[in-house]
Amino acid sequence: MSGSVAIIYFSATGNTHLMAEAIASGVRRQAETHVDVLRIEGTQIKDGRWFDEAFMECLNRADAIIFGSPTYMGAAAAQFKAFADFTSETWFAESWKDKLAGGFTHGAALSGDKLNTLIYFSILAAQHGMVWVNPGEIDCTAKGTTDGTNRLGSYLGVMGQTSLDFEREEPKLHPGDRLSCENFGQRIAQWVHRVK
């Protein structure tokens, strides 16, 4: 039986995009699982309201939805929030009830209040009646290293961190963060098949 996962996210500099792609790669490790990678763009927002019919069709079809955004000023980016606010009609219809959900975020600081963004995603999922799936991965410091998976010690969702470098032109993702994302994508896909 096939399953489907949708990753909906905003990325300005490309670091969060790299996380989304790594999560999608992890989803693809699970046989018979389709993944849609849906990047929120500023052009989808008119007069402060987000809308993209094709994206909504993918999300409504998916068995699991993974939310992603960089953490700006301690919260999800405004572009992601515009999307989330649009889902109020979906909320009213209970269209996402019992779908699986998860979340990921990226920031330049080691903490940077990224947990607040993940809490917001989990509350958004709860309001939709979704079932939250955490990464299920112990942090690498418990294994005696600071350079492995879940290196930031996040248990609610996946966190990524890349230090600011105004000279760097290309987005970058720490290898431990990339592996955490891949493992998370695979875990979500496995749960999709478990509950189908």
Write up what this structure looks like.
With 196 residues, the chain is of the alpha/beta class. The chain has a single domain (3-195), classed as 3-Layer(aba) Sandwich (Rossmann fold), CATH 3.40.50.360. It contains six helices and nine strands; from the N terminus they run βαβββαββααβαββα. The strands form two sheets. Strands 1, 2, 5, 6, 7, 8 and 9 form a seven-stranded mixed β-sheet that branches. A two-stranded antiparallel ribbon has the order 3-4. α5 links the parallel β7 and β8. The longest helix is centred in the C-terminal third of the chain and has 21 residues, at 175-195.
Number of domains: 1
| N/C terminus separation | 8 Å
DSSP strand content: 15-25%
- Low-confidence region ranges: none
User: Helix/strand-derived class?
Assistant: alpha/beta
Task: Examine the coordinates and then state which fold CATH places here, giving the name of the CATH topology.
Answer: Rossmann fold
Helix content: 25-40%
Major beta-sheet overview = 7 strands, mixed
What gyration radius follows from the Cα positions, in whole Å? 16 Å
CATH architecture: 3-Layer(aba) Sandwich
- Mass-distribution shape: globular
CATH-wise, what's the superfamily? Flavodoxin domain
- CATH class call: Alpha Beta
Q: Strand tally, please?
A: 9
SSE string: EHEEEHEEHHEHEEH
Structure annotation, total helices: 6
